[in-house]
Amino acid sequence: MALLLQAGDPYASVRQPEFRILLAGRFLFIMGLRMMSTLVGWWIYNLTNAPLAIGLVGLSEFVPAFLMALYAGHIIDLSEKRRLMLRGVSLYLLASLVLLGFSTSFTAIHLHRHLIALGIYTTIFFTGIVRSFVGPTFNVMLAAIVPRENLQNATTWNQGTWLTASVCGHAAGGFLIAGLGNTGTLTCIASLISLALFMLFQLKARPPLNEKGEKKTWDSVKEGIRFVLHTKEVLGALTLDLFAVLFGGAVAMVPVFARDILKIGPRGFGFLNAASDIGAIVIVLILTFFPMRRHQGKKLLLAVAGFGICIITFALSKMFWLSFAALMLSGILDGVSVVVRGTIMQLKTPDNMRGRVMSVNSMFINSSNELGQFESGVAAKLLGVVPSVIFGGSMTLLVVLTTWFKAPGLRKMQY
After folding, report:
1. pTM of this prediction?
2. Between the ranges 137-141, 208-212, 250-254, 284-288, where is the mean pLDDT highest?
3. Which residues are CB-neighbours of 96 under 8 A, at least 6 positions away?
4. Among the listed residues 373, 365, 388, 383, the one whose alpha carbon sits nearest the alpha carbon of residue 60
5. For 16, which DSSP code?
6. In angstroms, rounded to a whole number, what is the distance separating the alpha carbons of residues 255 and 273?
7. Which of 45, 235, 237, 346 has the most other CB atoms within 10 Å of its CB?
8. Angle at the Cα of 287 (from 137 to 21), degrees rounded to 5?
């Protein structure tokens, strides 16, 4: 039986053993994935010397993740959640081993660098398919483990865990690339994902709430889409974040800034990659103990506007400390957005539709990161690296201004 805990207790959800296991497993898994994304961006840029190539990494993951998301949501709602999650993590482990094979000296001798790049893109394409299933499943498992009255607290802890793993993965990725090279780094990545798999095996099975055959696939998918479109708070928050991430994806160009503009090498690259996540961790920790009580919608809009200003500052900076500070502050403001949006999604979604709604969320949010990475690569090719990042930050401000006047319901929202 779920443990009922006192309202206002910042440790309410983490007092439950199964939730702690989920957090530990997710931490190890996300840390491994962030190290992988850091490595792949640096690796591809050094193989091709083309900023657009970094954008193509995002596109290669975005296309399958986006196309599979709605079907994945239907399958998640009809599946035993633990088994589905373990299969997804296992396939990510396989992908890390494939990349490990591409990184060896044997491969470098016998394959042209463009063939190695093609192999990396192909592997990332298949991880996009897997991610369309495994990402939403983690959020569905959270809601299955934690009582509804503790979901806001659990969501904040979950986001904090994700962000902490992200900063550790980004920073460690840069340091490991400098110290161990690509092969050593991928060995560490495979080890982390293996440990995550071991932790997650300890969770209990979570059977589906929907009966198989109850609805046709397309009818089930349409039900999830209708829910998102008709729940204005959910739709507004997702749309705002979609365009902000799409145009404000300066992090995709961090390898270029680190190597060619700031000239700080792999170690400095690791710090820059971690900067936004450090800021996000700080604000999530604050919000865990001092949650927002009022005017969350207005704070969301102001935070996204501040995020856009930080991106423009980063683009114009020629000093490492200012670039780091701009990205760290952008992480603080983005953390506010992440917590507000995540809480809305968990509180507003019925249990029997969580797979489909979380998959729609992944189409808006997770895929927008990769599409934003591609947009950044294309813009850098057409405009130049610095003007493209300035353009992205300016477009983020325009999106916020438009949302402020066109979506008053989101601006006035509070929970």
Report:
1. 0.74
2. 137-141
3. 32, 36, 186, 189, 190, 193
4. 373
5. S
6. 9
7. 237
8. 35
